[in-house]
Amino acid sequence: MQQDRHHTDMVAARRIVVLTGAGISAESGIRTFRASDGLWEDHKVEDVATPEGFAANPVAVHQFYNDRRRLLLNASIRPNPAHTALARLEHSVIDLPGHDFLLITQNIDNLHERAGSRALVHMHGELLKMRCEQSGLSFDIREDLMLDTCCRCCREPGNLRPDVVWFGEIPLSMAKITKALTQCDLFIAIGTSGNVYPAAGFFELAREHGAHTVELNLESTNADFDEHICGPASTVVPDYVERLLSSAN
Ligand code: BJW
């Protein structure tokens, strides 16, 4: 594990924002996007993660998300110690006077909630939800979504899409996220490459408003974080959370 620059002044951390990306779920068996064996090795981003790609070939896009949904529902896919540690952090600080906690995930899996996280926003949507393009209403889904799946609100086929955020679309809960970023004193980014905006700019917004910024990743992605902790999430996240909590006692 490598650490550099300033260490977190943990006792001062009262308002904590955590951003997670695909790297936190990698050790649970879910592929990241941009690794050499990642999802974008097998699929073109513009084909499966844009509204234009969906309009051109909805069957292929449904297939891409159906495969990922089936994997997520497989019994072998479980939260790892990094997910569990973040849930422990939330439950340890959320009721303390003057403290606040928000977990922002770019991931569409449900491993954070399965680990016990509750103060959570899915800014890029959820794999276990589908949305009606006519009404905008969102529904739970655990089975495959097909072109002829009948919508529960308009009772017609062809109106449903995965309830996820594709390139060119506006991420979810941005008002809540922006408020938390401008008020936090500790910002922690875990397992995200910093390639996709607006998430890639969150640490700068938090830092401009006075937060200490920490990156936990296999490798450093941006030298401008105040602190870097390099290593696999299932090891470095529980260690970091333990240090944070023990310094607060
Ligand atoms: C480990 C590990 C281990 C591995 N332990 N670590 C030009 C300039 C700037 C911006 C733009 C631009 N042109 C267009 C834009 C905007 C565009 C964008 O960012 N494009 C870039 C390509 C430049 N963004 C958008 O369009 C977004 N919307 C938007 O900007 O709206 C405007 C607006 C914003 C705000 C307010 C109002 C208006 C929407 C982006 C949607 C992204 N959607 C996807 C698909 C979601 C559904 C799905 O899952 O299929 O989201 S793309 C994909 O990338 C997915 C991810 O959430 C996202 C980020 O990926 P992530 O999580 O970082 O994964 P990887 O694979 O990249 O990285 C993994 C990391 O983990 C690596 O660093 C590893 O080292 C690490 N790691 N194993 C620890 N064991």
Compose a concise summary of this entry.
Pfam families: SIR2. It is built from ten helices and ten strands.
Structural account:
The structure is a single chain. By secondary structure, the protein is an alpha/beta fold. It folds into two domains: about 1-30 and about 80-125 and about 170-249, TPP-binding domain (Rossmann fold, 3-Layer(aba) Sandwich), CATH 3.40.50; about 40-75 and about 130-165, SIR2/SIRT2 'Small Domain' (2-Layer Sandwich). The protein is about 35% helix and about 20% strand. The protein is built from ten helices and ten strands. It has helices spanning about 25, 40, 45-50, 50-55, 60-70, 80-95, 110-115, 175-185, 200-210, 235-249; strands spanning about 1-5, 15-20, 100-105, 120, 125-130, 140, 160-165, 185-190, 210-215, 225-230. The strands form two sheets. A seven-stranded mixed sheet has the order 1-10-9-8-2-3-4, sandwiched between helices. Strands 6-5-7 form a three-stranded antiparallel sheet, with helices on one face. The longest helix has 16 residues, at about 235-249.
